[in-house]
TrEMBL record:
Species whose genome carries this gene: Sphingomonas alpina
Top-rank taxon, per record: Bacteria
Coiled coil region boundaries: none
GO molecular function, one term: oxidoreductase activity
The name this protein goes by in its record: NAD(P)-dependent alcohol dehydrogenase
Enoyl reductase (ER) domain mapped to chain residues: 10-307
Database matches in CDD domains: MDR1
Amino acid sequence: MKRIQYHAYGGPEVMRLEEFAPEAPGQGEVAIAVRFAAINPIDWKLRGGAMKIVTGRSFPRAMGVDLAGIVTAIGPGVTRFTVGDAVFGMARFKQAGALGESAIAKEIALAKKPDDLSFEEAACLVTPGVTAWNGLVDKAKLKAGQSVFVNGCAGAVGEAAVQIARMLGAHVSGSCSAEAIDRARSFGLRAVYDYRTTDPAMIPDKFDVVFDAAATLSTAAGIGMLRKGGTFTTVDPTPARFVRAIVDRRLKPIVGTPRADLLDTLARAAQDKSFRLPIAEIVPLAQAIPLITAIEGGRRLRGKAVVAIG
């Protein structure tokens, strides 16, 4: 079978579309024939060695985390899925492999795909949805009636955060580029600001939760936007922020962590159409490397980039 992989940590130039020998699923794991995979920044962060303390130095290493496909085999102890099930979720974080014809995922990192949700739509939901849920629900304990500010509300994680916050009954405002303001307003936000021209300190409202989906707010700026007892969550979990979070409970760095119940919740929300993310472009596996390279280099898309695998 074929997948995108690399033989050393590095930039886009190390990616190759190559043949590989699929492995059998282990304890609590599921083998999947991948139909579609969604591209995320974590893909090139892993390839660049940002998490080598976790991923190690064994090569070749595979690319891609978010996927949707068909279960082809189950490992010992798997009870939630059977061969033939349509699923979506995350490939194993350490090994990755969603950008390939076959991948292995942990049972707890998968959900059954709703019948009226396409494979390509399902693949888009995972990392954005998990990250947004981890920040808003698991970290900030968001409740109905509270106010949320989403920095980067027009990006994939930001749009997921807006939808989840509104689904939970919160009042949402946010910031994005001037070009995306009209689109962001269509999400139902109370107020939308141009991040390039707006000083967060000058926004008149204070918020119960500030969710930095763009990783551009300083800790001081994010905390400065909070009401008393509020929470600043950020997708930029630097070591310094983890240290500060020990003594400052207002700060909650996010590390996206999938769970079966979380993914099942996203599946139900997708089924009732309260949670969907737009697709900007779909390419076949043979053209995925140029698309990844372009997005990594700064190309902006109004929606998710998706790779058709099989």
